[in-house]
Design brief:
The chain has 19 helices and 18 strands. The protein is of the alpha/beta class. The chain has a six-stranded mixed β-sheet, sandwiched between helices.
């Protein structure tokens, strides 16, 4: 593998606050176009390290080396102050496009002049693209680029003229992200960038980051996002930093292997130390063994103890079984809801049955939280009926749930408020499952972090005897370990559940059905999240359907002869298979041409003719775009072919 050009390097960085040392001797580098994740427990210093890299905070010790002219963009977790400036104008004003392209051209020229550069072909391609764009049009259309980025981040065209002061906190964060992406810096620093993105926008953002020409260093608690974007994981814990090659799942596997090996080494060392200690104790008083005793004492003092990294163990526990409810748990019939003149729902119908675990998905602003509030009885509506089933007890976890904790209480006393006189030992066991152990259960709520408060609020909810739980973004403020604990608890929960989350891993592990909220309509997808994504990949606009328990609605179908079924199947399938075969042949031809061009790029003589190399660069770029487009079409065709085959077999079975 060719070595990446180093854009930024940190050497022996140390940072303390008072007597508390966050981290020391942190050393790592960031290569061009590299995708890195910075992970670690809450309080490990991840944000501080990002601020040091961004130049906003100085380290106490160590050296930071940046390539000349390096530009850095930093997205913070904090919501920026609003202004009366209009959204589109604010994003466009944040960047001077022509100067940004010119800076990138100068940066690439410097990279190409560096003898340490092992692979110049990708840089030459980008240089050709930028020079062509810059010289032919005098700089590209900044407003057009801004609109494309805003659209990808979930903004509608009607939002472009809205003042920033009218936007919500989450929307303001997305506006800040849009400015940063338009700025196109050499190094992007992103602190929890997916916190305010819905599922659809997350997919767009992942694709954007994978194609981004600069380097990216980010923090995130979203495991699916980390797996799809990053290629190296930096873990900041116990005051030090360790680098792991691969995505999040690869890190977890490697970390487990490293910990097992370290534990084995530590055990062997402890056994050896114990053996030497017994010898010293036994013969310390014997003059004939004095020299050997002193020698072993000195040897023990020189041994560097192997430290096994602390690991939060998965604690298995079960929450109290909720009371048995009726088969039909909650029913919404002909619901109408509006905010002023803006209609959210008209004639909405939904029924959940005992044991359902439904995830509400859809774009931001579609009405998911409104629906959940109506289900919880926390929001009035203009028309229709909400009916709870027999013996149903509801519990609602809202986004403001942390504000309801009593700050003067301790962790244990707060849980006791809803524990119905359960034994303290049992409550300690529950709190241990949510990472509150030892003296931590006596900590006042006022001093807890956001993540600790969220864990306590979740423990309070799950310990109560509710058989219908409604949850709005329960993973907010939770780190990866806490999210895994929540997933375990919800997966084993025996009641009925309906929840909203942007954490795809949680949906994948818990949900047994997906309800898509779109344009005031509900669309039910029985099955897990992967089934929903598969369905979405070849169904552009599924029609709204009537709900029934765990099944798509059955409709009357004419009994069709098997011969007619086969005829229809082959009639639809044949042109798809022919087009797929044609695409495969065309892709083979284009890839061969692309390979020939890349061989030319590796020949020094090819760079003597400037016009020819520019033409080759442009052709290579065009080939790459054509191959990507054909690959996408080919994949969609295969999905349609598979779907037709599945439907054909199902129809034969029914008949």
């Amino acid at each position: 593998m060719a070595q990446r050009l180093t854009m930024l390097a940190l050497t022996n960085i140390t940072k303390s606050f008072g007597e508390c040392t966050l981290f020391s001797d942190v050393t790592f580098s960031i290569g061009a176009c590299e995708r890195l994740a910075l992970l670690g427990p809450n309080g490990a210093g991840k944000t501080t390290l990002l601020e040091i890299i961004a130049g906003e905070t100085s380290p106490d010790m160590g050296i930071i080396t940046r390539r000349k002219g390096l530009t850095v963009g930093y997205l913070r977790q904090e919501i920026p102050p609003a202004s009366p400036q209009l959204l589109l104008a604010a994003v466009v004003a944040a960047v001077s496009t022509t100067s940004t392209i010119q800076h990138r051209i100068e940066f690439l020229q410097e990279e190409l002049s560096d003898d340490a550069c092992e692979s110049k072909v990708p840089l030459l391609r980008e240089l050709g693209e930028l020079q062509h764009r810059f010289e032919s049009s005098g700089g590209y259309d900044t407003e057009h680029e801004a609109k494309a980025i805003l659209g990808g981040l979930g903004f509608k065209e009607a939002d472009f003229g809205c003042p920033l002061s009218t936007l919500s906190g989450g929307t303001l964060m997305r506006a800040e992200l849009a400015k940063l992406l338009l700025l196109n810096p050499d190094l992007l620093l992103l602190d929890e960038p997916t916190n305010h993105l819905d599922l659809e926008t997350q997919l767009w953002f992942e694709s954007f980051l994978r194609d981004y020409r600069g380097a990216v260093l980010l923090t995130s608690h979203d495991r699916a996002f980390l797996n799809r974007v990053v290629e190296r994981v930096l873990v900041l814990e116990n005051g030090g930093l360790t680098s792991y090659r691969g995505n999040y799942d690869a890190y977890v596997a490697i970390h487990a292997e490293v910990r097992a090996a370290t534990s084995a080494t530590a055990r062997r060392q402890a056994s050896k130390i114990e053996q030497q200690g017994r010898f010293i104790t036994r013969f310390r008083a014997k003059s004939t063994k004095a020299h050997q005793v002193q020698s072993r004492i000195k040897a023990l003092s020189r041994i560097e103890r192997v430290q096994v990294p602390r690991q939060t163990k998965k604690i298995h526990f079960s929450f109290p079984a909720p009371p048995h409810s009726g088969h039909e748990v909650i029913s919404l019939t002909h619901i109408c809801k509006a905010y002023g003149e803006k209609e959210i729902y008209s004639d909405l119908n939904l029924t959940l049955y005992r044991g359902d675990k439904a995830a509400l998905v859809g774009p931001n602003g579609a009405g998911k939280t409104t629906l959940l509030k109506i289900m919880a009885g926390a929001l009035p509506f203009e028309g229709g009926t909400r009916r709870l089933g027999h013996n149903v007890a509801t519990s609602y976890y809202a986004q403001h749930q942390l504000e309801l904790l009593e700050s003067r209480n301790t962790v244990l006393s707060e849980l006791m408020r809803v524990a119905n006189n359960k034994p303290e030992a049992y409550l300690r066991h529950i709190l241990g499952g949510f990472l509150f152990a030892g003296d931590n259960i006596e900590k006042p709520i006022a001093v807890l972090s956001g993540g600790e408060k969220a864990r306590l609020a979740l423990a309070k909810m799950l310990i109560q005897s509710a058989n219908l739980i409604l949850m709005d973004e329960p993973t907010n403020h939770l780190d990866i370990t806490s999210r895994e604990i929540l997933a375990d608890a919800l997966e084993s929960y025996q009641g009925t559940l309906c929840f909203i989350t942007h954490d795809r891993t949680l949906i994948r592990e818990v949900a047994t059905q997906i309800i898509e909220v779109k344009s005031g309509k509900l669309i039910l997808f029985p099955g897990n999240y992967d089934s929903y994504l598969y369905h979405q990949s070849f169904v552009e606009e599924p029609a709204p359907i009537t709900f029934s328990h765990g099944k798509l609605p059955s409709s009357s179908r004419k009994r069709v002869a098997e011969g007619t079924l086969r005829s229809d199947y082959y009639r639809q399938n044949a042109p798809l298979k022919k087009r797929a075969a044609d695409i495969e042949a065309e892709m083979s031809r284009l890839e061969a041409e692309q390979h020939d061009l890349e061989l030319r790029f590796g020949c020094p003589a090819a760079y003597q003719d400037a016009k020819q190399i520019v033409a080759h660069l442009e052709r290579h770029r065009a080939l790459k775009d054509m191959i990507v487009a054909l690959t996408t079409e080919w994949e969609q065709l295969l999905l349609k072919i598979d779907a037709l085959k599945t439907k054909f077999k199902a129809d034969l079975g029914r008949d």
